[in-house]
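Subject: Predicted fold for GH29D-like beta-sandwich domain-containing protein, 850 residues

User T.R. writes:
Posting the sequence so we have a shared reference for the thread.
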Amino acid sequence: MKQQLFKNLLWLIPIIALVWGFGFLFADDQKLVFEDPAFEQAIRTELQLEDGDIRKDMLNRVEQLSIPNNGIRSIEGIQAFESLVSLDASGNQITDLQPLARMNRIESLQVRDNQVENLEALSSLRALTSLDVRGNNVATLEPIEELTNLQSLNIRENNIESLQPLQNMTVLRDLNARYNNIDSVGVLTQLSELRERLYLEGNPIQDWIVLSDLYDQIKDKDFARPEHQLVFSDEGGLYEQAIDVAISTLGEAEGVIRYTTDGSEPDESSDIYSAPLHLEENTVVRARFYAEGIEQSAQVTHSYLIGVDTTLPIVSISTAPANLYDREIGIYVPGIYYNPEAPNPEHTGNFAQSGTEWERPIHLEFFEENGERVLSQGAGIRMHGGASRTVPRKSFRLYARSDYGENRFRYPFFEEDTREEYNRLLLRNSGNDWNNTLFRDAMLQELIRDFDVETQLYRPSTLFVNGEYWGIYNLRERFDNHYYEIKHGVDPQNLDFLENDAVIREGTNDDYLALLAYMEENGAASAEAYEFISSQVDMNNFIDYQIAQIFVRNTDWPGNNIRYWRERPDGKWRWSVFDLDFGFDLPAAAGTVAHDTFAFATARGGTSWPNPDWSTFMLRTLLENETFSETFLTRFAHYLNTNFEADHVIQTIDEMAAVIAPEMEQHIERWEAPESIEDWEQEVETMRQFAQMRPHIVQGQLMHHFDVRGLGDLTIDSVHQDIDWTIAGRTANELASGWTGAYFTDAPIDFSFAIDEPIDIESSDLDVAAISEEGELLLLEEGTASVRFSSPEHGTLLELSVTVTHMDQEEVILETGQTISLTSEEAVHWETSDAEIVSVEQNGTIKLTM
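User M.O. replies:
I've generated the structure tokens; pasting them so everyone works from the same file.
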């Protein structure tokens, strides 16, 4: 009986499990889990469901879904909306539309302002009557050529070259194709219903004339009557000698062409074109067609640069002279706002004003070094900078806006960047370095390009304003909400962007102030406090940021030129680097190559610029934590061996100086700032000398501040060539056998290898080169050792020779005129940062002379 009961139980258990399993599967089938939390939250908002499960039965009858501007990256799971007819997912960060591939009921789809490159997923959505893919990266319309029920199509601001796939869309009534790369519109003549709207502005169209017969039938259009379109015999560009430029209309038309050559926009009072224009000098020609006194064509602008000899790309700006120089509205002059009686009169004046009311319209052209014009569009311009607005050659800020035409500068200006669109650009005069090297900030940012910080891309260019030579300018990116949206995909509504002492540029400073309050109360020394702060601050970024500023000796910081940002709701704070012009011995800056910038950046009690107490609080508080302190010290040592190594820095200086050197004579002739080519070369040499001496000085200062016993030289004997690896959290792939770097004793050095297997570390002398429990290398006592990193599958990964040397530190105070002699068996060379203050002979004799 018991045996039979046991058998029945055995049968019962699988049955119960099966029933339970089906119940679980059923429940799981009803409960939906979305790949993207932002997508799920947007759905909850639409459903007004704060918490609880989202089930299929809640969604399968929904016909309309509106989820714009929610920071959504993936719409995987949208398939549960089986009855969906209308979807608005605009203003997100969606790259893949594949989840829509089988949603055949959709009639209206808006995915504008996302990051979509391919429309293949929409190829079978035959019910679509309205499609909006504006502001994406779509290159071809071929995937949607069978969507013959489309009545409205918005493809504005993509990379589309051909409209030929529209040939079968015979019911299409509304087409917005602005700002693509379309050169032919002939196919549109086959679309008999295309009568509601046709927008084509911002395309290099060659066959406008084919639209002549359709022009009067289209209700809403953004282009002039095709026969009124203006044609220039020669495009703007570089010409070796004088040129005759003829202007005509595309077809026969009754009216006049009016033009200007002073940069202003033509109006009904401008000169009437009657014969080809003979141009012997740099000239900007702007023209428009008029019939019966009314403008009938878009304005056309061409810059003709005659006999210009430059090795740099060219930026040409054209605008009404009054926009720059008029006493009341001119943005470049002291004007009506200048107050010589003000405490700081240099901060008054028209050039010191800001905001949209001080933005002026321009036409912007960009020419590559070979003279090819690769960009021509309307834009806005404002003044840029702080104190440098007062100098004769000022900086400009360029704005792309729909008000001027295209809302992006769509060109890959910077070779090292994959992006092809920008919303804001700077034409920078090199800031406080405007009359010295002209590339100091750009060079210093280049040194830290691979740091975990935001830096601004750079391209030296030659500027012309209304045809007048304006000299060398630095084309740069600008940090603002548009930068973080385009570069990092951060929805502007979710951006917190602050500067200096938590001043709000975008978003809110609530979380940052809460973080500071926590640090004030709890410090950072404890593991618990550091863990919390690390959840709010990107520590790798913060460490790299501080190291960069300290090494270059930026004394217009940390009480100024600070910007940091995060993405809500849970992004970490990150710092961005800009305006390093005070670094590397700028003549106007305080301090010399021996400036103790670490002490400067951690000083307490300051009340004003350049290092008030609030500006040093976070770094000095974090240095109370042992983990942070050790990471900071070892990372700094690594950068002194690599990015800041003297020969590497000098090579960077030389390479960047060589790019602008051919242009310097002409630039100096225009501005006399610097006064001569010799002065410029001396300023460049000053940076070389700074680069030569600074690493050793900073190394010694760090040893003093952190009470370091000595240094250990690590020499690579061998390294695995096929495996990525890091030192101190930074990539070391470029380091090869024979390389030697100096690291501080007693600070752990982390090594990692991009393999998924255990790493074995062996040291020939653990007293010299110890291995911590975490697998870090510790340099301890004087002596030599060899260290080997290996893995079971790959064998030897890295072999190092280690030599540790301890050093004594002693402070000596001299009176003026006093001489002392220093001796050291190890020293082979003595240097001084300023021989006029302290002279040093090679035998070790030191004299204070001032």
